[in-house]
Backbone:
């Protein structure tokens, strides 16, 4: 018998790493020749454009609030317009000597938004804190109490007004959208028809028309001597507009729930509302988190349209600051880049939080 010699098996190649920046770049930027060509083209454009922008924005920029020096230089950006007009841009027409009040009010509101997004803070005391912060916000902004001078709402503006309109309209639009979405799927024809008419009417007109109606047309239908503050009318208009769009997003999630789950809940003896709140809505809302957050971001940016009704939020305050001063009027690009960074900061934070919420609601699917 011939003895067999031992022949070792050839080693298998090491497994391909699927995490890390190199693996991410290979999967997303260089997956095939088309993706690689597009990536290289974009990188080439960035390498050509980025140094020019950096020279304009940083190297050759003028940082001092000196309009004559900006005109004499004329090569780089004139960030002096921000240094000169930042208080008017941030706080609008609010009285100069009282601008510490909107500063404190804005910090309180932003702090409330931050703790509201932290899971550890979802305690029974959170609604109490929300009411207290809102009361403090309006007390500081409006005044006429505790020794504070009265400042009418038509003089509110800038970042405080943007955060106020966006926050309150988002909070108030969500429950309305939830009810309308459920109403659109109701078996009662009257409720279903009413919700459908509401959604189609609101979606059939732009937000500018809604704001115009709320600000100028609605007071014509009010009884003699009865007036509603323009800030409240605008807030209601934005809320109703946002609720109509959000309702359709939520309705899409409701339609994705298999009918068998609803029938199973009925066999267990669950009522309609028990079925909705314990079975249907948790799954439906988890499915449409990206759409809901997209709607929230749109609401935040759409607040810039309130300028047409003489409420000068962040964008309107910038136009007010530059149009009233001919020396700084040529430097609108720098001003718009400044408020664009503010908008981007808030919108990027909301998008990151949306990703965190998606991971939380999808944990059950990863088991």
Residues:
């Amino acid at each position: 018998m011939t003895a067999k010699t031992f022949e070792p098996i050839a080693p298998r190649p090491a497994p391909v790493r699927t995490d890390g920046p190199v693996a991410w770049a290979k999967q997303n930027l260089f997956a095939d020749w088309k993706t690689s060509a597009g990536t290289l083209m974009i990188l080439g454009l960035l390498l050509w454009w980025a140094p020019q922008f950096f020279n304009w924005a940083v190297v050759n920029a003028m940082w001092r609030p000196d309009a004559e020096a900006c005109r004499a230089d004329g090569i780089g950006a004139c960030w002096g317009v921000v240094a000169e007009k930042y208080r008017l841009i941030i706080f609008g027409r609010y009285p100069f000597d009282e601008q510490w009040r909107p500063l404190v009010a804005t910090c309180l509101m932003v702090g409330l938004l931050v703790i509201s997004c932290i899971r550890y803070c979802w305690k029974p005391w959170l609604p109490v804190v929300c009411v207290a912060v809102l009361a403090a916000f309006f007390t500081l902004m409006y005044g006429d109490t505790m020794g504070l001078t009265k400042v009418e709402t038509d003089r509110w503006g800038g970042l405080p007004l943007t955060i106020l309109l966006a926050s309150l309209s988002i909070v108030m639009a969500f429950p309305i959208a939830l009810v309308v979405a459920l109403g659109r799927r109701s078996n009662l024809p009257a409720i279903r028809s009413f919700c459908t008419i509401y959604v189609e009417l609101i979606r059939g007109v732009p937000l500018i028309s809604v704001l115009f109606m709320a600000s100028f047309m609605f007071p014509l239908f009010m009884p003699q001597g009865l007036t509603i503050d323009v800030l409240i009318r605008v807030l209601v208009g934005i809320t109703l507009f946002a609720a109509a769009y959000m309702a359709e997003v939520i309705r899409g999630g409701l339609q994705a729930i298999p009918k068998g789950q609803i029938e199973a809940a009925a066999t267990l003896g669950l009522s309609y509302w028990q079925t909705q709140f314990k079975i249907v809505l948790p799954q439906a809302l988890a499915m449409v988190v990206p759409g809901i957050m997209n709607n929230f971001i749109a609401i935040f940016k759409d607040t810039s349209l309130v300028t047409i009704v003489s409420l000068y939020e962040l964008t309107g305050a910038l136009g007010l600051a530059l149009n009233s001063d001919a020396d700084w009027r040529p430097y609108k690009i720098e001003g718009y880049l400044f408020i664009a960074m503010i908008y981007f900061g808030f919108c990027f934070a909301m998008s990151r939080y949306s990703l965190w919420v998606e991971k939380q609601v999808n944990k059950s699917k990863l088991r």
